Amino acid sequence: MAGLADCHSISDLKDRAKRRLPRAVFDFIEGGAEDEVSMRANESGFGHYELIPRTLVDVSRVNLATEVMGQRIELPLILSPTGLSRTFHFQGERAVAPAAARMGTIYSLSTASSVSIEDIGALTDGPKWFQIYVWRDRDLVKDLIERARGAGYHALCLTVDVQMMGKRERDLRNGLSVQPKLTPRLLLDAARRPGWWFNLLRSPPLQMANVVGKIPGADDGLSTAAQFVDSQFDRSVTWDDAEWMIRQWNGPFAIKGILTAEDARRCVDIGATGVIVSNHGGRQLDHVPAPIEVLPEIVDAVDGRADVILDGGVRRGSDILKALALGAKACMAGRPYLYGLAAGGEAGVDRALAVLRDEVERNLILMGVPDVAELGPRHVRRIEERGGFPSNR
Ligand SMILES: Cc1cc2nc3c(=O)[nH]c(=O)nc-3n(C[C@H](O)[C@H](O)[C@H](O)COP(=O)(O)O)c2cc1C
Fold first, then answer.
1. Measured between alpha carbons, how far is residue 225 from residues 91, 178, 215, 240 in Å?
2. How far is ligand 1, taken at its centre, from the CA of residue 336, in Å?
3. Is residue 1 over pLDDT 60?
4. What percent of the chain has pLDDT over 70?
5. For residue range 145-183, what is the model confidence (pLDDT) as tens digits?
6. Do residues 290 and 323 make contact, with C-beta atoms less than 8 angstroms apart?
7. With 80 as the cut, is the pLDDT of residue 67 above it?
8. DSSP state letter for 385
9. Nearest-5° angle of CA 315, CA 316, CA 317?
10. Nearest residue (CA) to ligand 1, atom 15
């Protein structure tokens, strides 16, 4: 089996992750909602743009650093929040956060993480965001906010596209739902990956670490916690609640899950300092646009009043450069670093970030652009009329 050093692209890391994980666990990372149309469009949408290079420019030194919501990052790529990362490798979030810090970029910890706010806070001095929802129990929400503040998180990231869970059919077929079922298929599948089981079983039980001890009258087991979290999604949440949360936090605040210019404007009006253009990696509502498709109109609407960040479908450095040329301040990615985590723990996440960093730098040099801040509309062209690049994505 090829080692990490043989993984030269995010796609190579994905192949390695697939070989190491039980099928159901790989599907849990990989899957999207219903027919996975939006999930595929997130990646293929980048193929609708081509890069326009300049020649004979001195690119002996290039700058990849930028600033997002007042924080300097060395690479315009932020690690998206992903729940229960210890499912993919026994170290989970404990492997991801230090790798992000080494790269000099932001790690966003999910509310549904398998390592707690405080443990990650104490583990690294790297820049960190905490991802949150407006749950039914507002006291619990306030408690999470104060815990994030106390543990030194720089910003909050409010996810607004989970009124309820999307219909992820791979998980349903695999018996992975809010109440996991040990189906014969799941057991057989798991038996083929003894290494993954060995590591999982010799590490502490998988938990929703941020709600441990917070579920009234119940144990802290994963199944109970998952049902509790599911019951906390509140369909009555509105802009007033988001505004309430911005006031509670009183600091850098991004809203994740925005797909229209109108909603982006509203985010800024209620005081958000970041707008994350995202469809949750195609895992929530299917048939919504890919972030790259709506990015230009959202950049236009926000008009510099907040940082616009693109989340979803980024698999190449060139994807990041296209998003920046269309006006994003930075990108976010989830699956790319999870492939790395599953492929090789902390070293695998390092590898995923190094691959993307190398591609950003190399492509910037080849485009004749010495600084990411100089990327603009002249470096990118839509090629819709020709039906996009012939592409394997
Ligand atoms: C396994 C997995 C778990 C996720 N968990 C969360 C989560 O807890 N909170 C959240 O806001 N987004 C979550 N997301 C969505 C990511 O933050 C991000 O929007 C998505 O992965 C971007 O698409 P990409 O995977 O193509 O980069 C999750 C995504 C994946 C793949």
1. 20, 9, 8, 27
2. 10
3. no
4. 95
5. 999 999 999 999 999 999 999 999 999 998 887 655 667
6. no
7. yes
8. G
9. 135
10. 280
Q: Which atom of ligand 1 is nearest to the CA of 279?
A: 19
What pLDDT is attached to residue 187?
Answer: 75
- Active-site annotation, residues: 280
As a whole number, mean pLDDT of residues 22-26 equals 93
* Distance from the alpha carbon of residue 179 to the mean position of ligand 1, in angstroms: 20
Q: Which residue owns the Cα nearest ligand 1 atom 5?
A: 82
Q: How far is CA 257 from CA 34, 187, 266, 281, in A?
A: 18, 35, 13, 10
Give the pLDDT score at 223. Answer: 85
User: What is the DSSP secondary structure assignment for residue 71, as one 8-state letter?
Assistant: E
Cα–Cα distances in angstroms (integers) from residue 222 to residues 22, 139, 219, 345, in the given order: 19, 22, 9, 22
Q: Which two tokens stand for residue 129?
A: 């965001």
Mutate which of 29, 42, 80 for ligand 1 pocket (most atoms within 8 A of beta carbon): 80
Domains of the chain, start order: 4-382 (3.20.20.70)
Helix axis angle, 10-20 to 23-30, nearest 10°: 150
Confidence of residue 296 (pLDDT cuts 50, 70, 90): very high
Token pair of 262 as six digits: 């109108």
